[in-house]
Design brief:
The structure holds two protein chains of two kinds.
Chain A (H helix, E strand, L loop, with lengths): L2 E14 L2 E7 L1 H4 L7 E5 L10 E4 L2 E3 L4 E7 L3 H7 L6 E8 L11 E7 L6 H8 L4 E8 L8 H5 L4 E6 L6 E2 L2 H10 L5 E5 L2 H14 L3 E4 L15 E4 L4 E3 L6 E3 L3 E2 L1
Parallel strand pairs in A: 8-9, 8-12, 9-10, 10-11, 12-13
Antiparallel strand pairs in A: 1-2, 1-7, 2-6, 3-4, 3-7, 5-6, 13-16, 14-15, 14-17
Chain B lengths: L4 E3 L2 E3 L3 E3 L8 H4 L9 E3 L16 E4 L2 E4 L8 H13 L4 E6 L4 H12 L5 E5 L10 H4 L2 H14 L4 E4 L8 H9 L4 E4 L3 E3 L2 E2 L4 E2 L6 E4 L4 H14 L4 E4 L5 H10 L3 E4 L2 H4 L3 H15 L16
Parallel strand pairs in B: 3-4, 3-16, 4-7, 7-8, 8-9, 9-10, 10-15, 15-16
Antiparallel strand pairs in B: 1-2, 5-6, 6-14, 11-14, 12-13
Chain lengths: 257, 302
């Protein structure tokens, strides 16, 4: 059950010129949140920007009741959010989304992320590696865009980093590296988040190889609670489901993206 | 202090309701507080058969507001009666069902079914700007509103509220039609038709190109229209359009609304509706107002 609270910003880090990491004290949310879920942040006490910003949970410390988010400054809302200072209170609602990463029962897990889509995969990998082998494949545009390499290394049995231009580690797309490991029979399930072309490619790959695949989706959101029906995703059975309600994580065979 | 209102024959413990399409059927917000604190809940637009709604993107944020083009996605009236109404009935708040349709026959059928249910009233949606058939096709003319409302009136004994569109030259004309056709009240305003364009792709942000604008950006338009309608008809008004606190609600009531609805304001804070109730009480205390009904229409024009 989601709650609204004023979370203290305990620690603020700037990972890149436009990418920030916040550590927020939010015990009531952390106590019940699962990998894949997100929070909604009100970035101003005023009325513009009007809507909350949905941001995925990157990491949780269940003992201390803190959660971490990482976000890129993309517009006015995230820009205002990035101006918050340590000790400030941040108005958040969470945890949101009933569709979480379902990793229990799998032994050989593949985690596939692209660009800023890698953030919600960390908490997943961190939990999954307790009982499974986790192979992580992260793709970035170039060397400057590479993020969280050490962090993902610590929650993966194998970490593959690719860059589109070959300026760092493997030249090419992360999904091609994943494909090789699928073909050698090392993967039971795929969890993915990233830009739409990556999600489409992994959806096709999973179908071809007949491997279960769960993808985390984004769509412009109104309420974040399953009420306004704004963040619609077309499903193969006809009609729509919603990122904030049945998602953000969907079975890749279920959705039309 | 008495915050009770009798709106169009519906008894409510306070004048604050939540607007159709911004509250689903209530369950999600009940996770935050007891819905009995609200005067009433107006459900998501509900049609005879389930509707899938429009293609995404369906929402887009605008200055102090938002555009939406949901397209009346809903599970249909039978589903509502079976799964949502029994739960809603336990919440101790007035239940008003927003009824929509593509044809006059649809509206009549939905209302026939609702007439035999345990709801408190119907809000007839003649104003959704995001569907191809129905709604605006009837809602923008005197004849259209009168015809649908009259036909529904014949099958509906429960309080009947007609929700009006602001996308007309003179909103008092459809308001008068609703009154002439026997409606017990009107609600206004539905969203204002708008459009936002992505200058990089040169395409509108919404898949449906246009959508309905709501939020505080439209409040002055809504207040003006509530005032105009209050001068033109004798049935009560449910006022809405960008209300986010008690002061906003009072503004609508002074303009002539007997009750109010919180719409997009629910999205920025799940507690906006209950905080609005508190804000109204604070205003009453400050100005020594015994009965909230006493301030309705008490604006003094310059």
């Amino acid at each position: 059950m989601p709650v609204q609270l004023q979370a203290k910003l305990i620690k603020k880090e700037q990972l890149k010129p436009d990418i920030f990491k916040f550590s927020l004290s939010a015990k009531k949310i952390v106590d019940i949140a699962k990998p894949g879920q997100f929070i909604e942040i009100r970035v101003t006490d005023g009325l513009d920007p009007f809507l909350r910003r949905p941001i995925s949970i990157y990491n949780m410390d269940k003992e201390n009741g803190t959660l971490e988010i990482i976000f890129r400054v993309q517009g006015k809302g995230t820009e205002l959010l990035s101006r918050k200072k340590e000790e400030d209170l941040v108005d958040i609602i969470g945890p949101l989304g009933y569709g979480t990463f379902k990793y229990e029962g799998y032994n050989n897990i593949a985690v596939l992320g692209g660009g800023i889509g890698v953030f919600p995969l960390y908490e997943l990998a961190k939990n999954a590696i307790k009982n499974a082998t986790v192979n992580t494949y992260l793709g970035f545009r170039n060397k400057e865009a590479v993020l969280l390499e050490k962090e993902f290394e610590s929650v993966s049995n194998k970490l593959v980093i690719t860059t589109d231009d070959g300026s760092y580690k493997i030249h090419g797309f992360a999904i091609n590296e994943l494909k090789k490991d699928i073909e050698s029979g090392k993967i039971d399930v795929i969890f993915a988040c990233g830009p739409l072309p990556l999600l489409k490619a992994v959806q096709t790959l999973a179908k071809e190889k007949n491997i279960p695949c769960q993808i985390s989706l984004e769509e412009k959101m109104g309420c974040g609670l399953g009420v306004c029906l704004g963040c619609a995703v077309e499903v193969v059975t006809g009609g729509y489901e919603h990122v904030c309600k049945q998602g953000p994580v969907f079975d890749s065979n279920k959705v039309i993206i | 202090m008495n915050t009770e209102v009798n709106f169009a024959g519906i008894k409510m413990k306070n004048p604050v309701t939540v607007a159709s399409g911004t509250y689903g059927y209530g369950r999600e917000y009940s996770q935050f507080f007891d819905l009995s604190k609200l005067g009433g809940i107006i459900t998501k637009g509900t049609s005879l058969k389930p509707r899938d709604g429009n293609k995404p993107s369906r929402v887009y944020e605008t200055p102090s507001g938002m555009l939406n083009s949901i397209g009346l996605q809903n599970p249909g009236v039978e589903y509502f009666l079976q799964y949502d109404l029994p739960w809603l009935k336990q919440q101790d708040t007035a239940i008003i069902v927003n009824a929509c349709g593509s044809t006059i026959e649809d509206y009549v059928e939905v209302c026939k079914i609702l007439n035999n249910s345990d709801i408190d009233g119907v809000e007839l949606n003649l104003s959704c700007p995001n569907v191809k058939a129905g709604c605006l096709a009837f809602g923008t003319t005197y004849e259209g509103v009168k015809e649908v409302t009259s036909k529904v009136r014949k099958v509906l004994d429960k309080p009947l509220i007609v929700k009006l569109t602001p996308n007309v030259t003179d909103i008092t004309i459809p308001a008068k039609a609703a009154e002439d056709a026997g409606a017990d009240g009107v609600s206004l305003i539905n969203t204002l038709l708008g459009m936002s364009i992505n200058i990089n792709t040169r395409r509108p942000y919404l898949a449906n190109n246009t959508g309905g604008l709501s939020g505080p950006a439209i409040r002055p338009v809504a207040v003006r229209m509530v005032y105009q309608v209050s001068q033109a008809i004798n049935i009560p008004i449910l006022g809405m359009g960008g209300i986010v606190n008690g002061n906003d609600a009072i503004e609508f009531m002074l303009a002539g609304a007997s009750a109010v609805s919180i719409g997009a304001g629910n999205f920025i804070d799940p507690y906006t509706s209950v905080n609005t109730v508190k804000g109204i009480e604070e205003y009453m205390e400050k100005y020594n107002i015994e009965k909230i009904e006493d301030i309705v229409g008490k604006v003094e024009m310059n």
